Structure formats: C-alpha cells, structure tokens
C-alpha cells in the first residue's frame, strides 16, 4: 500500500479535535459495503488508543496537521491577551466553547483555555465545563509542544506564565 494518500502521510503527527495529537501509523484499505476504502490508522498517545478514520472523512472530522511554529507562538501570545468577558450562564458558555473545540484550530483552543482559566479564578467551573477545560488544555499543550519541539512540562509553564500575567 502506498505511504501517502491525499492528505496525510504515514508517521505524520496530526490533531484530532477533542481527541488529541496522534500519529498516522498506516494507511490501509478496508472493505466496506463491498468497496475497498482507504483508512488512516491513527495512534493517540494521550489515550493510548488506535482509531481508524476513512481518508475521505478526515477533513470533515477536523483532523489536521500540527501547526507550524509561528502559529503555535501566536496562539501562546493569544492566551495572555485581553479578552471579552464570557457569559455568566455556564450552559451558553459551555456550548460556545464546545463549538470552538470542534472547530479545533489552535487559536480556538487557546481562546477556550484562556476564558475558562480566568472564569475558574472567579468561580469554580461546573463539572462538564471543567472537563472541557482540561481537555482543551491537554490538547493545546500537546500540539504546542510538538510544534515548538519543547517538552510538555516546558509548554505548560509557558501557558501558565502567560495566563498568570493577566
């Protein structure tokens, strides 16, 4: 089987929104409804899970390449910038942030981390929102650490230094 199919290549690191950073282990054809369909086999280290995603569905699921270094640095800057106050209604806030997480750009994830971090300083987050924050923070740390080629610990320090500077 070819090592490249339109889109991603074997051994390429990718972001699967709301799942984490993964690596394309292989591109395999599987039979589905009597048709051979190419699938990405993606290993997600954070959950120690391997998933199969049809190549033609990957983009629709928001799967994308790790951002370049300059984009990761811009997202880190965004975390320390001023921001609009977020709604006090947690359900509205949760849905807005969930929609951002599904879009999955590194800057969208930075916005979620920034707003929920600062909200948690005012009042404890409801459990669903806390899980969303933890998930967004983990995803952000993972992607930025790969993009900057820094340890997750170093990136976590960068994130919290910027958040605390506000």
- Catalogue the unreliable spans: 1-5
Q: Output the radius of gyration.
A: 17 Å
Approximately how much beta-strand content do the residues carry?
Answer: 15-25%
Helix/strand order:
EEEEHEHHHHH
CATH architecture of the largest domain: Up-down Bundle
- Kindly report the CATH topology of the largest domain: Methane Monooxygenase Hydroxylase, Chain G, domain 1
Tell me about the largest β-sheet: 5 strands, antiparallel
CATH class of the largest domain, anyone?
Answer: Mainly Alpha
Helix content: 40-55%
Q: In DSSP terms, counting alpha (H) and pi (I) runs of 4 or more, how many helices?
A: 6
> How many beta strands in the DSSP annotation?
5
Summarize the structure.
The protein is α+β, with helices and mostly antiparallel strands. It is 49% helix and 21% strand.
Written overview of the protein:
This protein is of the alpha+beta class. It folds into 2 domains: 13-65, Beta Barrel (Thrombin, subunit H); 69-164, Methane Monooxygenase Hydroxylase, Chain G, domain 1, CATH 1.20.58.1290. It is built from 6 helices and 5 strands. It has a 5-stranded antiparallel sheet with strand order 4-3-2-1-5. Strand 3 and strand 4 form a beta hairpin. Helix 2 (69-79) packs antiparallel against helix 5 (127-148) and helix 4 crosses helix 5 (127-148). It is globular, with a radius of gyration of 17 Å.
